[in-house]
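Journal club prep — side note

Before the paper discussion, L.F. wants everyone to see what a predicted structure for a comparable chain looks like in token form. Sequence:
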Amino acid sequence: METANKMLTKIDEKVKDMKESKPWITEDEKKDVLDKAAEVKKWLDDILGKQDKLAKHEDPVFKPAEVTKKLKTLQKLYSKVAKKSKPAPPKEEKKPEDAKNNTTEGEATNSTKSEDTKSNEEKKEDTKAGKDSDAKKSEEAKTEKKSEEL
């Protein structure tokens, strides 16, 4: 139980150190960890008090596995908050002069894309027309074969 108390104290200290070392972690997140630690500490104190009242030959009030489970849950919560990465700095806005240059370049690019699109569309139409004429030829050939057979 001494180990559990040391762990609870250590987590409290680490969360308090986060205010300076990791300012991007919100107060709510820190409060969640501290509240959970306080809850575990209170639970541990309660069961230890109950255990002290029992005679040594009576069954224990708790099992070590219960303490371990609660401490692991607390440790996971702390780890989740502590591993939160620093947010990326906001992107800088471009100067108005750069924006004008980019627009001109973008317009030039768009006109080129339009020409490319037109030529691709024309190619597709040509290909489609070629397929249509091939289909017509095939149909005519089939019709001729049928008429020959009759």
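L.F.'s comment for the group: Residues 15 and 30 are 6 Å apart (CA to CA). Keep this in mind when we get to the figures.
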